[in-house]
């Protein structure tokens, strides 16, 4: 068994342990030893390595498209810098990487790939949608029972798994070409996206222009008519019918909260 | 102190660490697998596939909830939000067993996603016991505490690990989880007899045994340095140490852990069959 000898001991605090683990230039705390009371040396590197590898893998798993776009080596390098600057703040690794889009946006070397931060936001949103609460969608009859006027005055609850993202980049096309065979080349246009989950797998859809303003207004509790106005204010091209159809088919509406006011 | 026991609830048969990619395979042919273990943190989302799968599996299998992020050995206080999430999960699943590690993973609100070692002193003993008291009273279920795999030692330690863990069990009423692969790793790395460790371990407090694979490396002096990886088959000397343990402990729930480079279900099922055979062989010999 491990020999215990308290006569000439050096206590190691967890602050010292973590500091040395995060920065390989620091000395390994002297109170860490092997079975012959030699300094721990390489043995300590096991922890350094375990932590770095597990967090790096978490980023690869959490941001597969970013990893694909950058290539594994570049992704490893970036992950190494990121995880030192932003170690997880919670044991829930399913949400790790909140700061990754902002981190990518601030990397000078990546400024020629301006779409990367928005793709990282899309991947974060897909993960949040995957783990979001299950809520039964609105029954089709519920909408059919409303008159046209009532429909415009209706306020809705939205599915926790439904999310929108706006971008100046063709994020939908970039997502598609990296996840589907035979997808067309990305167009040179700004694209907004609606993420919905029919069942368990979240899927992004191209959202008509103005759709983000419409979705956000509904989520704030505005009625359909007011949400339509909010979207029209942003762009007169807003297509209410197409946007609503997309949301209904994606189970994004879960409940009629009542009629205006 | 706690309402539910974690001892004697799991079947004395083989279990495996559950991986979502095996969901349909387990439904089709579970082989000799009689129970499943989940990592608590993977089931703390609000919904979606992970919770749906678990809701389904718990109808057919006893579940063991195994936490990897509570940082029971941490110098700081326990994360109350995380403890609340754990309590909700345990209340929902009503697991046959609930376990955590003698280790820490959070410091200064940073989570390191690894099981880090602590020295064994009177001071750390009190801290760990306080944390376990808090966990058990909050979660409402007895906890099993798992022995770590060690790559180094602390000069300041004044307790040997089995005695340290036995004292924790005595003071808090927690049970123990014996990871036989971890014993083999630590004994090799710190040059002691794994059998002597088993002899000293408080086996009547053990509610579950873990088995898993490890990697081989060397330290600065050319001595073997084994690293816990859960990424390959259990090696023969670890199976032999299991036999040595079972001869003293009697039948126990046996878990195969395989967390990295996860193989096809048939490979894991085969490992579980070997664990079942080890238990059967022991039971025959005991008759």
Question: Could you give a short description of this structure?
Answer:
Chain A has helices at 14-22, 42-62, 64-70, 72-85, 100-105, 116-130, 140-144, 148-153, 171-179, 211-219, 224-234, 240-249; strands at 32-33, 154-158, 163-165, 192-198, 201-207, 253-259.
Which features does this protein show?
heterodimer; A: 261 residues; alpha+beta; three-stranded antiparallel sheet; two-stranded antiparallel ribbon; 6 strands; disordered N terminus; B: 287 residues; alpha/beta; eight-stranded parallel β-barrel; 13 strands; globular
The share of residues in extended strands of chain B comes to 15-25%
Instruction: Write down how many β-strands of chain A occur, each being a DSSP E stretch of 2 or more residues.
Output: 6
Q: How many H/I helical runs of chain A? A: 12
Total strands of chain B: 13
DSSP strand (E) fraction of chain A? 5-15%
Cα separation of the termini of chain A:
75 Å
* Portion in helices of chain B: 40-55%
Sheet with most strands of chain B: 8 strands, parallel, barrel
Distance between the termini of chain B: 38 Å
Low-confidence stretches of chain A: 1-7
* Rg over C-alpha atoms of chain A, rounded to the nearest angstrom: 25 Å
Structural category of chain A is: alpha+beta
Largest interface: A-B, 55 and 62 residues
Overall 3D form of chain B: globular
Nearest-integer average pLDDT of chain B: 96
Rg of chain B (CA only): 18 Å
Overall shape of chain A: it is: elongated
Mean pLDDT of chain A: 94
Could you explain the architecture of this structure?
In chain A, α2 packs across α4, α3 (64-70) packs across α4 and α10 runs antiparallel to α11 (224-234). Mean pLDDT of chain A is 94; it is low at 1-7. In chain A, the strands form 2 sheets. Chain A has a 3-stranded antiparallel sheet with strand order 3-4-5, with helices on both faces. Chain A has a two-stranded antiparallel ribbon with strand order 2-6. In chain A, a hairpin with a 2-residue loop joins β4 and β5. Chain A is built from 12 helices and 6 strands. With 261 residues, chain A is of the alpha+beta class. The termini of chain A are far apart. With 287 residues, chain B is α/β, with parallel strands linked by helices. Chain B is globular and about 50 Å long. In chain B, 40% of the residues lie in helices and 21% in strands. In chain B, β3, α3 (80-93) and β4 form a beta-alpha-beta unit. Chain B has an 8-stranded parallel β-barrel, surrounded by 4 helices. In chain B, strands 5-6 form a two-stranded antiparallel sheet. Chain B starts with 13 loop residues before the first strand and ends with a helix. Chain B has 9 helices and 13 strands. The interface between A and B is large, with 55 and 62 residues. β1 (32-33) of chain A pairs antiparallel with β8 (153-154) of chain B, so a sheet runs across the interface.
């Amino acid at each position: 068994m491990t020999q215990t000898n308290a006569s000439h001991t050096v206590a190691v605090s967890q602050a010292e342990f973590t500091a040395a683990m995060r920065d390989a230039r620091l000395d390994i705390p002297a109170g860490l030893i092997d079975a012959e009371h030699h300094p721990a040396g390489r043995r300590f590197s096991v922890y350094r390595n375990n932590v770095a590898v597990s967090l790096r893998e978490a980023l690869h798993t959490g941001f597969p498209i970013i990893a694909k776009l950058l290539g594994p080596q570049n992704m490893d390098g970036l992950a190494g810098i990121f995880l030192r600057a932003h170690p997880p703040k919670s044991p829930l690794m399913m949400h790790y990487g909140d700061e990754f889009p902002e981190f990518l946006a601030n990397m000078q070397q990546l400024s020629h790939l301006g779409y990367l931060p928005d793709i990282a936001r899309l991947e974060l949103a897909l993960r949040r949608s995957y783990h979001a609460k299950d809520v039964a969608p609105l029954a089709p009859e519920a909408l059919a029972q409303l008159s046209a006027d009532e429909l415009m005055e209706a306020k809705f609850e939205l599915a926790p798994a439904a999310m929108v993202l706006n971008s100046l980049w063709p994020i939908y096309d970039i997502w598609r070409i990296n996840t589907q065979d035979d997808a067309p080349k990305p167009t040179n246009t700004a694209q907004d996206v609606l993420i919905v989950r029919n069942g368990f797998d979240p899927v992004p859809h191209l959202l008509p222009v103005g759709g983000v303003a419409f979705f956000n207004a509904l989520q704030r509790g505005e009625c359909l008519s007011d949400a339509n106005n909010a979207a029209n204010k942003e762009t007169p091209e807003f297509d209410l019918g197409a946007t609503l159809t997309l949301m209904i088919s994606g189970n994004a509406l879960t409940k009629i909260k009542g009629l205006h006011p | 102190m706690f309402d539910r026991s974690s001892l004697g609830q799991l079947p004395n048969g083989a279990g495996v660490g559950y991986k979502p990619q095996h969901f349909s395979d387990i439904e089709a042919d579970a082989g000799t697998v009689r129970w499943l273990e989940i990592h608590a943190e993977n089931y703390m989302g609000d919904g979606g596939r992970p919770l749906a799968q678990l809701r389904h599996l718990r109808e057919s299998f006893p579940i063991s909830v195994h936490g990897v992020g509570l940082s029971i050995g941490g110098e700081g206080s326990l994360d109350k939000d995380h403890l609340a999430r754990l309590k909700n999960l345990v209340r929902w699943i009503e697991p046959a067993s609930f376990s955590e590690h003698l280790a820490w993973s959070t410091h200064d609100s940073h989570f390191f996603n690894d099981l880090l070692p602590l020295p064994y002193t009177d001071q750390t003993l009190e801290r760990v016991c306080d944390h376990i008291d808090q966990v058990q009273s909050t979660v409402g279920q007895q906890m099993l505490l798992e022995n770590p795999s060690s790559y180094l030692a602390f000069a300041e330690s004044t307790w040997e690990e089995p005695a340290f863990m036995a004292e924790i069990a005595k003071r808090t009423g927690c049970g123990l989880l014996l990871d036989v692969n971890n014993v083999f790793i630590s004994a090799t790395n710190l040059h002691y007899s794994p059998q002597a460790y088993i002899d000293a371990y408080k086996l009547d407090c053990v509610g579950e045994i873990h088995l898993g694979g490890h990697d081989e490396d060397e330290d600065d002096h050319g001595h073997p340095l084994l690293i816990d990886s859960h990424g390959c088959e259990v090696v023969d000397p670890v199976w032999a140490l299991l036999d040595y343990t079972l001869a003293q402990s009697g039948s126990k729930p046996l878990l195969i852990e395989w967390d990295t480079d996860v193989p096809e279900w048939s490979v894991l099922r085969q490992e579980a069959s070997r664990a079942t055979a080890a238990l059967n062989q022991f039971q025959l010999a005991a008759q």
